[in-house]
DNA sequence: GATATAGATCGATGGCCGTCGATCTCCAGC
DNA sequence: GCTGGAGATCGACGGCCATCGATCTATATC
């Protein structure tokens, strides 16, 4: 083991053994991670999560006036949450006269669901 | 239709037709929604999502020193993210000498994965 | 004991976000 | 046109959070 004393008056202690070979890397590309993280963030509030649960379970579209009494917050807060879901691309709405009807966008959760379920992106299972 | 003029000098216009019968309710109880929302919130950052991806994919435990160079942030930021994941109950760590090894807690994502996949809680599919 | 390494934690910073009351915009009936 | 209902939006408020540099704690070697 060669010792280079040029401009190195102190003897530096040898570094410890490396812990391991570097063998890890993310499969998920940054752009995809950002997409999925934005979906996760939209679901990261209990009210928004329950909104998705309601909308997803319902066969048709749901009027906002039905959603508001489900929660212990003001109408404006429910509207705000619906806006967050809209902007995350999870839901959309349709105006009918006085009323606004919301629905989950088909497959908006698909990529994230596939990833979190530990599956490849294409569905490979008949359930 | 009786008109009550007592202390009601103005004639109030009749309310419009209701939009629909109220038929929606969340299946997900508040406590479960809060649990799952906290998991979602932990995943709601791209770096943390990629950390879970790496740790989940790896057969064993992964040293922090391997994780840090995967991202374009400081060591302290990676440590902070790992702490968030720990506190959300998604990962745990084990000390070996100088090094700390992280792993995903088995089935920590199970409840959330089942819900987001639209499945009942018990798995019903062999893939 | 001194020194170095690994990584957890602290505190500051500036941006993000859930909630509210107020207000606005659109729709509909009189 | 006036009035009222539905719900979207605004702005304020206070708490939350990602990032950094600095520092601390635990481990290991000389």
Task: Write out the CATH superfamily name of one domain in chain A.
Answer: Winged helix-like DNA-binding domain superfamily/Winged helix DNA-binding domain
Approximate helicity band of chain A: 25-40%
What strand order characterises the main sheet of chain A? 1-3-2
Radius of gyration of chain A, CA atoms, in whole angstroms: 25 Å
Could you state the order of secondary-structure elements of chain A as H and E? HHEHHEEH
What is the CATH topology of one domain in chain A?
A: Arc Repressor Mutant, subunit A
At CATH level 2, the architecture of one domain in chain A is Orthogonal Bundle
Number of helices of chain A: 5
Instruction: Considering residues with a beta carbon less than 8 A from a beta carbon on another chain, report the largest interface and each chain's count.
Output: A-B, 53 and 53 residues
What is the percentage of strand-forming residues of chain A? Answer: 5-15%
Low-pLDDT segments, ≥5 res of chain A: 1-16, 121-127
CATH class of one domain in chain A: Mainly Alpha
Largest sheet of chain A: 3 strands, antiparallel
Give the total of beta strands of chain A.
Answer: 3
**Termini separation of chain A:** 63 Å
What structural class do the secondary elements of chain A suggest? Answer: alpha+beta
Mean pLDDT of chain A: 81
- Envelope shape of chain A: elongated
Classify the oligomer. homodimer
């Amino acid at each position: 083991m060669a010792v280079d004393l040029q401009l190195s008056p102190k003897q530096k202690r040898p570094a410890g053994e490396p812990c391991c070979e570097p063998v890890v890397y993310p499969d998920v590309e940054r752009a995809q991670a950002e997409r999925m993280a934005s979906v996760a963030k939209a679901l990261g509030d209990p009210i928004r999560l329950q909104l998705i649960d309601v909308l997803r379970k319902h066969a048709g579209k749901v009027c906002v006036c039905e959603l508001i009494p489900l929660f212990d917050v003001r109408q404006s807060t429910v509207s705000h949450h619906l806006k967050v879901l809209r902007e995350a691309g999870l839901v959309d709405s349709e105006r009918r006269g006085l009323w606004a009807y919301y629905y989950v966008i088909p497959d908006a959760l698909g990529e994230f669901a596939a990833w979190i379920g530990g599956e490849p992106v294409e569905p490979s299972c008949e359930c």
